[in-house]
Hints:
Chain A is α/β, with parallel strands linked by helices. In chain A, 39% of the residues lie in helices and 21% in strands. The longest helix of chain A has 19 residues.
Amino acid sequence: MDPILTGLLKPRSIAIIGASATPGKIGNTVIRNLIDSEYKGGVYPVNPTAVEILGFKCYPTVNDIPYVVDAAVITVPAKFVLEATKQCGEKGVKGLIIITSGFAEVGDVELEQELVRVAKSYGMRILGPNIVGTLSNSDKMNASFAPFLPLPGKASLVSQSGALLIAMDAGTYTRRVGFDKMVSIGNMSDINFSEMVSYLSEDPDTNCIALYVEGLRDGPEFIEAARNCKKPIVVLKSGVSAHGAAAAASHTGSLAGAAKIYGTAFKQAGVTQATDLNDLFDRTLALSLQPRMKGDNLLILTNGGGVGVLATDSAEKYGLPLHFAPADVQEEMKKHMPDFGSAKNPVDMTGMAGNDWFYETTRSAYSHPWVDGLVVLYCETAITLPEEIADAIYRGIKDSGITDKPVTVSFVGGERSDKAMEWLVERGIPAYNAPDVAVKAIATLRDDQRMQDMNHNGSYAPGDINPAAARDIIASARAKGRDALTEVEAKQVFSLYGLPVAATELASSEEEAVKLAESVGYPVVMKIVSPDILHKSDAGGVKVNIKSSEQAKEAYRTILENAHNYKADAHIDGIAVQEMAPWATEVIIGSVNDSTFGPTVMFGLGGIFVEVLKDVTFRVAPISVEEALGMEDEIRSAAILNGTRGESPRDKAALAKVLAAYAYMVYDLKDEIAESDANPVIVYENGQGVKVVDARIILTKKY
Amino acid sequence: MDPILTGLLKPRSIAIIGASATPGKIGNTVIRNLIDSEYKGGVYPVNPTAVEILGFKCYPTVNDIPYVVDAAVITVPAKFVLEATKQCGEKGVKGLIIITSGFAEVGDVELEQELVRVAKSYGMRILGPNIVGTLSNSDKMNASFAPFLPLPGKASLVSQSGALLIAMDAGTYTRRVGFDKMVSIGNMSDINFSEMVSYLSEDPDTNCIALYVEGLRDGPEFIEAARNCKKPIVVLKSGVSAHGAAAAASHTGSLAGAAKIYGTAFKQAGVTQATDLNDLFDRTLALSLQPRMKGDNLLILTNGGGVGVLATDSAEKYGLPLHFAPADVQEEMKKHMPDFGSAKNPVDMTGMAGNDWFYETTRSAYSHPWVDGLVVLYCETAITLPEEIADAIYRGIKDSGITDKPVTVSFVGGERSDKAMEWLVERGIPAYNAPDVAVKAIATLRDDQRMQDMNHNGSYAPGDINPAAARDIIASARAKGRDALTEVEAKQVFSLYGLPVAATELASSEEEAVKLAESVGYPVVMKIVSPDILHKSDAGGVKVNIKSSEQAKEAYRTILENAHNYKADAHIDGIAVQEMAPWATEVIIGSVNDSTFGPTVMFGLGGIFVEVLKDVTFRVAPISVEEALGMEDEIRSAAILNGTRGESPRDKAALAKVLAAYAYMVYDLKDEIAESDANPVIVYENGQGVKVVDARIILTKKY
């Protein structure tokens, strides 16, 4: 763990710069909160005029403090923050908690950058500015203006919104979800999400990391940090709607990326994405209290058929469809229910179930090797007491001796059920007031394991490639003042990165066209190559199925003529002569250089699938061949590639290699390629490979 | 309102048959509950041996009661229920509340049917059997073994699961969602959901009807009752997963229909479908307290940017995307926020917002005509008190003088926020602990209005049809022992219901084939017609593009030969000669006779859209042309019909008429048609109409 970050987040002493004797001022509230949270470290108020604040001796400047200062909380107005930063640097403070607002979020980016520059020059790190502060139960430290420490627990929150952190802080008590740390990250001028994830991954007091993200500034680093993180991460990303994204951008001055690419990146990083605030709490509770679920066999115990059916629906919805329990499990379950109960799954003990049946079924089901995870449902009945059922479930779990598989619980009822669930949560068993939520919670433990099991090791690097030659082609296009490659150039670049392009050569005369057509082999396709004509077909610049030298010559003339008529002053590079690839299944591969996550590849089927159904999927580059296969399988029209309507299966293996190589290319050339398309790409039947028929590369803007 | 139902649900006197002096017995609990709920009507325990139970005089039989008995609660064991029913009939009891279980749900269907027969012979109605009972706050009546009356309110619940009713009853207090009535409907041997909906539609104490449904038994009646219902209806339908549906079927002995058709039917009936138990409570709260939302202009007020963005995302998710507020609204809002606030929408007053700003923005926004609905969000801050903010919002709403548009609220915070929200709910303002839920709640009020606005009046009835002739064709096929029509017969039936089929005639000889081909006009298609050959192409039984009499003769011979080789003993009706419809956009129309809702039409694009993407939509028949247009627009590939990739728009108007006529046909022939297909149907460009190229009708089984 970075000792400076430790000094910042777990300081042994804190200076409060801008300390105030006036109640209600933030410089007063922070000191009051440190007292209330029973902080055991040094507290040194800094105020040029006061002698003492809330019982602590005051110092005129931070330099006057005669002790080591780990962290400084800065609450002075924005215009004084730079000077305070310098003084902290002189003093040898490790970390700055800059609560003050009025920087990048209101447009003053320069001041914020200057702050970071100065802090770095002293080896200091900055949390903020524009934050609430930072809170830690294990350090009994509320170094913030949030009113109190959260309900203690094993989750930690990093929030980009201060208001939401304060509200969630209070909400931990009513929702009974415990947190150790709550860190307000604000403008992220210096310390960002990826560093917080890396830090909390090593923090012994954190079991699960919860994030509220409006916009990441460190996309690739975040993915890396999350992949390496030893603990479950759950994120609530706001600004996923078009209108919402706009609001986010104006809110903290960070650029929000497209919701779809965020979703992709989170999945690639092994991060669970919460759908809303309640969902964030629900999933955090389970992830912070229970182990991951290692297999797909979920068993549900219930005393109510109705909630059993609701839970069954939910299991399917959350990707854990129920299977009937094996015979020996059913036999054991049948001992604890009336004849009209059901031992299959859900195991319905019926409304007659009392404490003993709950105890016995819980204990034996939980300890059975077939069961990978257990959900226990209880409907309040007239013949049972929720607190006793809770006790029976708890004893059943404990007496099973099992600790490596998850269990969640739902009680549906009133106040007594709520109290009983609270009691269970205090004992480490996540409990929810609706059956579907208990199922969602165990499903999140399964999903987290599934994401762990994904192989992120090593992206695919195609052999026998020539990046230097590719860069030469790009440089030469740039030298001509162009910000896009021609089709022939783009295909050359593709080819130099090992992509199978339809052989294409550039002809500058009728004779050359014939020569090239003969070397490629008839039939051929001929297309205009001009930086000024992007939509070749519209310009009459494409002729297909050319079968002889006569036809080739005629095509050459006609295309030139059409191009001239279309745009008289177009610069013509020549006419491309291209192998005419036989038709098969058409797909599209493309890339964008996302402002948050960098080069990102897209894949989908061609034609109406892309244009009408928008049936495409993304991955942040680079990717492995395995991930590429995942892309092929996750589009809605995936079955087409497996062969439908009497067609043979397509060469998915070859396509996966092409996708991975494409991702490698756009990653390797991320400084050069802004956007690219391979469209169409023809995928042949198994063993017959793939052919890129058309290519486009748009270059990054360089000034 | 049906006076017998009123007698059952709001009885002035109740006999308890199976009354018991033993605490814990249901026959004792019901009397205890009537006492505890302060029921003011007559309570007459019936028990052959007891003299008095819980202070009430006991009667040996119901006939010995010297007063009028409106309802009898029956708790005696199943084998005595029939006798008790007869005695109630003799006594002149109006309604039976049969709590006893052990009927259809355990397989004893006959006993249950006998019960209904006997009750009907006396003019009595039955609630149950296998129920918890019925509860009503406005009647101060807990005639059930659920422990207490629910939190008073303006929603009423009808539940097919007794256990869930009991659990929800207790949950009304912790979730602060008030109910007037809770009715356990159990096996629905007699009174079913449609009757309860009709009854509660007239009930002055009910504003919103909440249903928990495992499987309807009265699909078409339910749709009718729901359409005529004056109040919002929200349903939680369980058993929507494959596995869940199986569990539902075994649970209450009712057959669960396919989830997709249920979803369609609910939408057609104007019923909101809740996704889970919390969602049921959330939506019920809003629908029972607030008016419907008349337009799409939602304004969001907030003191926290983060929750504002979350709410914005949610608005898009729930079909109410935000628009920027008009200039005059923004101007007014700006008066109540600092410079760095935002007046657009969401209106972000920032964390500086106090009581006055909340009051002023709420009042002026709510009374502005542009605003159709208002969501007020509050994040607990250090400078405000939740109870004061709640008061400010409440006053703002009240002082606006507006009562015909909805408002919902979310406070994110701790216990004080929860208390403040409780206070608001008591004053009729729905409040939720997460911003997205407050948005979902107002969106449900908008959706309910949208469903009201749908025109259900009158289904389309095609003119110039001949149902009698169609029935003759079917009868003649049945007379031959067949349970499917041939293509030619099916097309004749289609045609008699006004559907535009490709002209098809049956030839029995080469010469006849030539004659028919000439009358249809070349080119033609020729196809084998045999009840024993369903897959005509596989049998080599289809020849297309026949252009001359020679080709027609040859085709006739070849098809017969192929059919013989394919299945030597196949009965051959002849060979169909069909107009060769030019190709255009291919769609599929079909129908199933759903076990719950009856004839239901399906629509989708043909080929891969149906086979791979399962991109189809359903409507319970009959439908209007307007609804048919809705079907065309709601498939994922809808854009294809509008013309993509350079194609002209398809004739959607003609297609809608065909869809509506098709629905009319399968509805009119619902006793005859089990399943049907028009596949493919070719849709031409605007004004050019539609042609049904192939047809199939499977008949209902009749014994």
